[in-house]
Amino acid sequence: MSWKKMVHGLVKPDWVFAILLVASGTFLFMSQSDLEIGGGLAVSPMIKGLLVFGLVLLVSFLSTIGISLDRKLADDYYFQLMANGAIVGIITNLMIVAVFVLFKDWLPALTIKDIFSILMAGWSLGYFFYRWRGLKV
Amino acid sequence: MRNRLKVLRAERDWSQADLAERLKVSRQSINAIETGKYDPSLPLAFKIAELFAMSIEEVFQPE
Fold first, then answer.
1. Which of A49, A58, A93, A105 is the most interior residue, by most CB within 10 Å?
2. ipTM of the predicted structure?
3. CB-CB under 8 Å, A136 with B25
4. Over the Cα atoms of chain A, what is R_g?
């Protein structure tokens, strides 16, 4: 057994997602923060757009390679659970952010930390919902 | 997709863990296939059929 297979064998997805869920839930209820990312450099919207697009292109490409490796090494069942859970997480995040944008006058503001926590909690819950109900539902 | 995995496994007196080990997958994968919660990927379906010396159609049937 290669070391990569051994490491994958040691990582139990149920535990990873349980920890992720508890951590993201905890972050949601912790004190508010005014966390902002970056902001030290003033550039034109065009330069900023190019920088962000370039990073998205690079990171998504690298992620594709990483996920291909994961698919090769991980159990197919768990990989499908994680992939389906990720879709649930993304949709949950988009919907909740959209609700907070639409009803901003009646709801509190969401911080970056909140949005990140919602994404992680949605992913974890999606994983466990599929684990419970099966991948065919 | 229906499957005869549980029956084929029982005929050989294998536990879910035994079968999982032979297929190099988790026991949870075998349980999920048997309980109809998950349809295996094509490579895994081929592996299962090969292990039981059967064709895929003999192990898996469309619902």
1. A93
2. 0.85
3. no
4. 18
Place of tokens 């919660």: B37
The answer to whether A136 contacts B44, with C-beta atoms less than 8 Å apart, is no
Q: With CB atoms and an 8 Å threshold, state whether A134 touches B28.
A: no
Q: For residues B46, B52, B56 and B59, what is the CA-based torsion angle, rounded to 10 degrees? A: -130
- Cβ neighbors of B40 (< 8 A, separation 6 or more) are A76, A77, B29, B33, B48
> The tokens of A47 are what?
């330069």
Chain A residues touching residue B37 (CB < 8 angstroms) = 133-136
Token pair of A107 as six digits: 């709801």
- With 0-12 CB in 10 A as exposed, 13-18 as middle and 19+ as buried, what is A73? middle
CB contact under 8 A, A133 and B37: yes
CA distance A23 to A131: 20
Q: How many CB pairs under 8 A join A and B?
A: 36
**For chain A, domain boundaries:** 14-133
Q: pLDDT tens digits for B8-48?
A: 999 999 999 999 999 999 999 999 999 999 999 999 999 99
Instruction: Give the helix/strand (H/E) hosting A125.
Output: helix A112-133
DSSP state of A136: T
